[in-house]
């Protein structure tokens, strides 16, 4: 079992890994891609570089640095994180290739991607629009459920929801469906509006109108927020809430960088990583 | 008049200057040397560098970066900072070469250097040992005063103290005296102990014993803490106290990096600089 599993290889995740490794903990860093910096061409304001830096190049340098200092890095996609139900200090992290165990987990996957940008989305969030099948699925037993998504993440949510109802429609929001969804109805149109009264009751696409009692969002791949939410962590305005030790309300689950909000700058994410690492080191050594 | 005068060219000061310059403020950075990093050979834990970095090299890169983005940099030694007494938003910064004016000042001069490491020093700090002639000199009118130091900073304190008493002894603590001190008594020996009862009453050197009612410390060159103290800023356990906007209790006087305490790491200082810069930008634009 690893001491820490760090999820995310950007400034916060790599910075934390470097500090954790140097404090002689067993660290595993799991990363999917180079995050938002991958598309950031010119970085001038991160101290210590006399020339303009390319975002992706900087992330790669940070990972090389972590690797040089001994951090184990896996380029895999995290699909699920579970905390041991019996109160053990153990998290199980399932990726598209393997399953790993860690005493603690640090979420450092950057800012949560924007969700559906359509009329009614904000209005009905929490009023029938949900981001977590395991949290809210049971409310809609035998009701009409819509689920938005096109990848593995969606099909995992679908599987959970299928325990509660068979009346499920998948909305790909005009993205290519990359998973097998069996006999479920699929709407391939772009979503244009969400309607309702007190609560949601319709999803409007460019071609059609669908009645729903609930709409579950599972677009793209799960974000740090999605994992955090599933474990019962408190989220405030799309940011994971942490204490001054970077720990969420879930014991042993830490978060750093853009996913906890604040200044969305490399400098802040790197500093977050260092602070979180020191807190995790203390925490693990006291277990 | 500059919008901001940043004092200190290390991670916090340069990072802040870069952000301030990019927010189109008129920034002047004044620095004396490369600070504590000058002597730090191997830096491995600041994110973004695949190879080990040399501290001084890193500081120089940060300054080149600031310069490239348009920050004006002066290599001068700050001797005094004064806030306008009539409530104007104006600070006057006096260096060994020039006098500058700024609407705000950011102190980023690193951690305050250790003071006298002798028996009794801690015990009598605040009990006759003082760090500010302007703050405490008047208490010792016509008393026996010692002043510790060997440079310009000491002679400035001496000038202030001479308004209150003529019975002053200068202790160089075995450092070379680089300023003219006229007819004042000078003790060139190494200080070995501070003695007293309720309050200080003796300075012991390797060769002699001196009776004093007070001892003013003005060793080397003034630190951020020394400036802050003189302006009435609150210092706690050797750290300058700032609010969540990095402002001290003195309106318009900000501080960032090691001098405000917390994690003494580059990552934290750089992040401090970014945060302070954003707060200063808001503050200056609202003046």
From TrEMBL, chains A, B:
It comes from the Bacteria. Residues 2-273 form the FAD/NAD(P)-binding domain. InterPro entries: FAD/NAD-bd_sf, FAD/NAD-binding_dom, Ferredoxin-NADP_redctase_2. Signal peptide: none annotated. Keywords: Flavoprotein, Oxidoreductase. Pfam families: Pyr_redox_2 (PF07992). SUPFAM superfamilies: FAD/NAD(P)-binding domain (SSF51905). The keyword Oxidoreductase applies. Gene3D superfamilies: FAD/NAD(P)-binding domain. One of its GO terms (molecular function) is oxidoreductase activity. The keyword Oxidoreductase applies. PANTHER family: THIOREDOXIN REDUCTASE 1-RELATED-RELATED. This is NAD(P)/FAD-dependent oxidoreductase. It comes from Hujiaoplasma nucleasis.
């Amino acid at each position: 079992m690893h001491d820490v599993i760090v999820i995310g290889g950007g400034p916060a995740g790599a910075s934390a890994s470097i500090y954790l490794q140097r404090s002689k903990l067993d660290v595993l860093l799991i990363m999917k891609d180079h995050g938002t910096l991958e598309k950031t061409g010119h970085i001038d304001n991160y101290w210590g570089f006399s020339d303009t830096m390319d975002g992706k190049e900087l992330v790669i340098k940070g990972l090389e640095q972590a690797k040089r200092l001994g951090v184990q890095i896996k380029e895999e996609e995290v699909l699920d994180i579970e905390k041991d139900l019996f109160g053990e200090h153990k998290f199980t992290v399932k990726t598209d290739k393997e399953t790993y165990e860690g005493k603690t987990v640090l979420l450092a996957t950057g800012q949560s991607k924007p969700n559906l940008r359509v009329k009614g989305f904000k209005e009905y969030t929490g009023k029938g629009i949900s981001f977590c099948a395991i949290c809210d699925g049971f409310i809609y037993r035998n009701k009409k459920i819509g689920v938005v998504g096109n990848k593995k993440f969606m099909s995992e949510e679908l599987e959970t929801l299928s325990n509660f109802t068979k009346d499920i429609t998948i909305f790909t929001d005009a993205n290519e469906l990359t998973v097998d969804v069996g006999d479920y109805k699929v709407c391939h149109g772009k979503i244009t509006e969400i309607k309702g009264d007190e609560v949601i009751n319709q999803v409007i696409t460019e071609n059609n109108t669908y009645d729903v009692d609930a709409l579950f969002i599972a677009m793209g791949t799960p974000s740090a927020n999605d994992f955090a939410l599933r474990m019962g962590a408190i989220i405030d305005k799309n940011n994971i809430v942490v204490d001054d030790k970077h720990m969420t309300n879930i014991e042993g689950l830490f978060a750093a960088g853009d996913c906890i909000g604040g200044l969305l700058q490399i400098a802040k994410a790197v500093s977050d990583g260092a602070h979180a690492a020191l807190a995790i080191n203390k925490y693990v050594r006291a277990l």
